[in-house]
Design goal:
The complex is a heterodimer.
Chain A lengths: L5 E10 L2 E11 L4 E5 L6 H9 L6 E6 L9 H4 L2 E4 L11 H10 L7 H8 L14 H13 L5 E5 L7 H13 L6 E5 L3 H7 L2 E6 L2 E6 L1 H7 L4 E6 L10 H4 L2 E4 L18 E6 L2 H15 L7 E3 L3 H19 L1
Parallel strand pairs in A: 3-7, 3-8, 5-6, 6-7
Antiparallel strand pairs in A: 1-2, 1-4, 8-9, 10-12, 10-13, 11-12
Helix pairs in contact in A: 3-4, 4-5, 8-11
Chain B lengths: L2 H20 L1 H22 L12 H30 L2 H6 L5 H31 L8 H22 L9 H14 L13 H9 L1 H10 L13 H21 L7
Helix pairs in contact in B: 1-5, 2-3, 3-5, 3-6, 3-7, 3-9, 5-6, 6-10, 9-10
Classes of the chains: A alpha/beta, B mainly alpha.
Chain lengths: 325, 258
Amino acid sequence: MKSPAIEVTGLRKSYGEVEAVAGVDLHVEEGEILAFLGPNGAGKTTTVEILEGFRPRTAGQVSVLGQDPATAGLDWRERIGIVLQESQPEEFLKVAETVTIWAAYFSDPRPVGEVLQLVGLTEQRDQRVGRLSGGQQRRLDLALALVGNPELLFLDEPTTGFDPTARREAWAMIDGLRDLGVTVLLTTHYMDEAQNLADRIAVIAAGRIIARGTAEDLAVTASMQTRISWDSQEVPLAELPEQLRGAAAVSVDPGESREPGTTSAEGPTRMVILTDDVTDTVAALLQTAGRLGRKIDSLEVLAPTLEDTYLSLIGEADKAGSLDR
Amino acid sequence: MSSRGLRQLAAQTRVDFTLLWRNPLASFFTVVLPLIFLFVLTALFGNELVTPVGPRLASRFVPGIIALSVVQASFVNLAVVTVFRRETSILKRVRGTPIRPWVFMGGLVATSYAVIALMAVLMVVIGWAVYDVDLLWEAVPGLIVTLLIGGAVFCALGLAFTNVVPNETSGPPFLNLVVLPLYFVSDVYVPASDDTPRAITLIGDIFPIRHLAVALQRGFDPLTDDSLWPVTNWLVMAAWGVAGALIVTRWFRWTPRD
């Protein structure tokens, strides 16, 4: 049976009376990409730095690749790669020189050319690091983390500052690490990044994990509903069957729905239903349109995004925290 | 040391040496500035014979400028580079790799020694070719020991000093603020004479730069103390070096200041 790449139980870290991490449990399987989400000051960086061996913990059990990072030796460091949130390579070195010296730190590095190809910096190999764009410098960060041939990679906000194209390219690159069997702990503020890359997601708030699982699991945890909307002129509120009428909200703006069953004083333009039962709701709506002999070309069915789910979870955690206080 | 450690040290030294040469500010302050000082001092004070049989006045400037080169190459450059690497998280990243910390730091120390050797040879050659300054060959073993001790001591002090430099931009002014006044009271620009106020030499005697400069003078000026083995100067420097090493062992930071 495979052992987990990361196993954390009851992790705590205090600074004086402030508890930055207040009992985190975390489990990451080998070869898995886990996204670690949370607002600033939630304990995310502290947790990751404890896992990387940079920070001592106050209490709890931590096992990373079978060893305690607080006491692990250089052999353990051979097996991990780290992309820090902020770091700046030596600007006067060339790209290939930078990766080459980094490769010299490891006993079994990947060939430099292979790493440059993997991160898409082959053409820039003889360019000074200081002349690379922000996105290219971040790719170089990733190259330095990969050159040691790591089993586990810590990626802390790897695409911050990227334009959309560069971000998509970086995602493809990180996704490609799956084929290499690399386990990834990804810290990010970009929900689409987590949704696209991660097998599972863990959300931390106020030093505690408040939700974990796939994006769908999280949506269930947060009781998120699918949003069905259409133009009210196509199927007006009055024509809806009873079971939908009670649930429908009317909105003058697609993003600004009112309480279910209400109407706008300005005249309704958009109908909105939030539901867990998408199939039955859409079927009933189409049936109604059919009965009226109309089409619903404006129909939109929007599943909850990870961002909606995340904001809901964090909002709930904030409320609970306020009540605790 | 393992052969892998040696290979890593050689590779790191090559990189650090390359970085020094490619960085215009670092190479100017480490290599060009001492040469300028030598030319300016001889232009200002001339190069007359000190006594009818010699030596020439420049024989007192050359060892002082070699001392300055040692301090610039080890103390100033090493501290500036290390603070920059700390504040830009390069040190933190390195700490996350399997390279031994002393091997990584060894690259900078070896680079300092390479520059010290280069500058010492350059000064001796320029002194001999341009200013008629003779190296006292019987003092060469003592000179080499002085340079070895000086390099180690000022590297240790440079690393220790990184603890009080808050960020990378304040590194160069901070360090120059420390060494520039000390150069004036440490026989670096102008050797002390009988007319030098006692307070100046006393202050100079407390710090290691003057001991380095005085120990180097033995190699060029036959009129100085006739001992070829300036043990007292070495011991004072070593004491500073030990203090620096203790500070490094206890308080050296690998991560940026929060």
